[in-house]
Amino acid sequence: MDYANREWRYSYRRLFDICPEKKLSKVVSKALSQYSALTKAWDIEANSTWVCRTYLATKMILNATVLTNALEHSEEAGLRIANPYYEYYAALSLLRAVVYTLPTVEWSDGELISVSHSRAINLAFDWLGKFDQDTAKRLKALTQQLKAQREVISYRAPASGDSILDVEYDLYELLILLSELAQFNSELLEQSISKNADPSSFVVKAEYIAQLSGFEIKGFAFHDSEDAYRLDYLKRKMPRPFNLTATMTEGQTEDFIGAWDADEEGKFTNGSPRDWQQIFDLP
After folding, report:
1. How far is CA 193 from its chain centroid?
2. N or C: which end of the chain has fewer CB within 10 A?
């Protein structure tokens, strides 16, 4: 896709619609200067953390895809009580995808992985505001509304059901813009690395793979062998950050989304790959 005198690796559906070419050129220039500050000092540590960050961003897009597939199934099956959860956590997943790709946010020894809801909202929409302030303010308000409606179900158990909730909004506008914002960031990061980084630093340290695939929450330990496998693949085959569409593989997409399919016929399924494209053009 060609826009603002640049060739892009992704065919953006909505992001460029909110930002004229002249303004986008300024956004790109400023963002590239921020990425350059990182990539001109690139080393093995930075390379390892940013490989992890781009991988996490791809997972957040896949996670949002599963959540919206579940939302559609819930609506068809009449399980409306779950819908506010699906909507908000799809948005939160993509907010985190954006935050993981921001040049201005540090890894902080992995603390970024569990960035708080409010910080993710503020950081992501501040960044979107560089493209268009009105769109950013409107979609930030929508995200806060989705968060509030999820809390209504969780904490107030409304006797009137979901009739007290507002459903007059375009959820997919929000989700598509956030996923494309993360992709946009990753494209600029890739370009900056190619221009500035020393290829000898393109190494992924094993300790970062362990940090993402084995972790503890509230005193309970978890291990994800699929994360370990996918990160080991990146370590061997793609040992430097690339844009999100280049980082994703068909195998990753199919395995992540397929992991949530029911084993029994007639139960929830994510369908075929043609059903996974509402938010983002997945491989």
Report:
1. 20
2. N
SS3 of 87-155: the string is HHHHHHHHHHHHHHCCCCCCCHHHHHHHCCHHHHHHHHHHHHCCCCHHHHHHHHHHHHHHHHHHHHHHH
Instruction: State how far the Cα of 99 lies from the Cα of 96, in Å rounded to an integer.
Output: 5
Instruction: Give, in order, the Cα–Cα distances in Å from 32 to each of 29, 55, 194, 229.
Output: 5, 21, 12, 32
Is the pTM here over 0.90, yes or no?
yes
pLDDT tens digits, 37-67: 999 999 999 999 999 999 999 999 999 999 9
| CA 151/CA 256 separation, integer angstroms | 28
Q: How far apart are the first and last CA of the chain?
A: 17
Q: Measure CA 224 to chain center.
A: 19
Distance CA 43, CA 22 (A): 34
CA distance 101 to 104: 9
SS3 at position 216 = strand
Residue 232, judged by CB atoms within 10 A of its CB (0-12, 13-18, 19+), counts as middle
